[in-house]
Amino acid sequence: MKNETITAPLGFRCGSAACGIKASGKLDMGVLVADEACTAAAMFTRNRFCGSPVTVGREYVRDGRLRAIVVNSGCSNVATGRRGVADARQTCVWVAEAIDARPTDILPASTGIIGAFLPMDKMRRGIDQAVANLSYSAAAGRKFARAIMTTDLKPKQACARVRIGKTTITLAGCCKGSGMIAPNMATMLAFLTTDAKVAARDLKRMLAEAVEPTFNRVTVDECPSTSDTVTILAGGAAGGLNSTKAKASFATALREVCDSLAYQIAADGEGATRVLEIKVSGAKTARDAHAAARAIAVSPLVKTAVHGGDPNWGRIVQALGATDVAYSPERVTVRLGNAILFRHGAPAKELNPKKLSQAMRRKHVTIAVDLAAGRVADRVLTCDFSREYIAINADYHT
Q1: Whole-angstrom distance between the N-terminal and C-terminal Cα of the chain?
Q2: Is 248 found in the same domain as 286?
Q3: CATH number of the structural domain spanning residue 160
Q4: Of residues 88, 77, 74, the one with CA closest to residue 17
Q5: 86 & 227 share domain
Q6: pTM, entire model
Q7: Pairing of strands 65-75, 106-113
Q8: Are residues 64 and 107 in the same domain?
Q9: Quick one: how far is CA 318 from the chain centroid?
């Protein structure tokens, strides 16, 4: 069985541990280590109350070089002041000492409850344990994906392989994210590895280009996290991208991996029972296309209708009508799957409520809106809004 985890690319090991940060006793510490220093790129949350690991990570990845990532779950180290920053730096020091690297070549990440200090005695123990069991195996990659989870029900992983000349380049990733999802850069936490040799400048550009149509197009509850981080490490063990065609092939694979991970986030949204994809076409501008799609995707009325299997197209046009997007209402067409719900300013003829309700109860529901105002399209992924979402978040801290 092929390794499809974050350790699939040549030259990467993972270790994980349960060090007691989570009261459940589940895995809560992960370390990802490259055999050699890698070119690296990262994107972070734009939330002004960003976590201390984000503050440190931005500084450490600035030179386009990283050797390892250390991540804990159960405590996000957000809104913890100078002590939080010092604690994030200290975790990097401990990993660096254990793998003989520079502290500034380690990227820290944390996820969990906001406003609590990292339990540094547990962090030290967890780092030691995780480093002690570093492995290139698929099992190690799977454990790492579980160690970064909080309210996630499933680990989220993706892998792609690209043939470039006589060389096979592997690119893999894992992420966590289930609630507090409305990225304005990436997702909650996402880590990517590749054995391709990529210049730091190219890697930064390709990561940004992959993030925009994938992670930046998924929302669960329209609450941008304080900890959002997506990082890619390129080790180079499989060889370089020596042509424009090779770079394009790699960029396509990177987008595919990011797209898969983003979809898995929507599918595993807190309390979710189905994925909702909003497609907008015929927009005048890219800004309009995105604004229209997002307005529908974040509407609680639309999301609850999808959960209940209620094809209430009035909620869709209401959300669209609340925007300042350029269009003429009498030219708009709204579809649920292949069925037309609304066009020419009125309900479509011969609507079959029973069949529409069945279509809305599928695991993947697509709502398509043609604005007939231009040629630009966009899409946003989200999920339905269930009673379980309220239960999860009402009880999250207590």
Answers
A1: 41
A2: no
A3: 3.60.70.12
A4: 74
A5: yes
A6: 0.92
A7: parallel
A8: yes
A9: 29
Residues 258 and 282 placed together within one structural domain of the fold: no
Instruction: Give the structural domain span for 365.
Output: 275-394
Kindly state whether residues 252 and 285 are assigned to the same domain: no
Alpha-carbon dihedral of residues 160, 366, 207, 143, nearest 10 degrees? -50
Q: At what angle do helices 200-211 and 244-267 cross, to 10 degrees?
A: 40
* Those residues with Cβ within 8 angstroms of residue 354's Cβ, 6 or more apart along the chain or in another chain: none
Which amino acid, one-letter code, is at 156? K
pLDDT digits (tens, 9 = 90+) for 30-85: 999 999 999 999 999 888 888 899 999 999 999 999 999 999 999 999 999 999 99
Residue from 193, 288, 180 nearest 234 by CA: 193
Residue 44's DSSP bridge partners are 229
Tokens 């708009």 correspond to: 332
Listed residue (206, 333, 200, 309) closest to 257, CA to CA: 206
Query: Does the annotation count 366 as an active-site position?
Result: no
Residue 29 tokens read as: 């510490």
Catalytic residue among 187, 214, 231, 382: 187
